[in-house]
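Quick note —
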Amino acid sequence: MNTNTDWVYRVFEPHGSEGWRPYGDAERWHGAITASDSPEGARFAIGRIVADLMSEWERIGLHHAMHVRVFVWHVEEGDMDDADFVVEVRPRSDFDAA
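Predicted structure written out below.
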């Protein structure tokens, strides 16, 4: 039987030698998405987060797009090292030329 679960996420940006810090408005880029309790559900959640990032960057101008990491945990947030999925988004620097 396919059940639903929460996929908890947080988006981080590079912060030099200190590692990673929460991206932008920390409240906006942190939360949970309910989807099936399966790898497909996790992919759905990650897809929604990346789509939201792309929409945000298009709204404010693609030159604001930046390197981020999306951390996703099953049910509750943990340490970065314990994330179930980590997706790195590195937008091209020549967006406007494309």
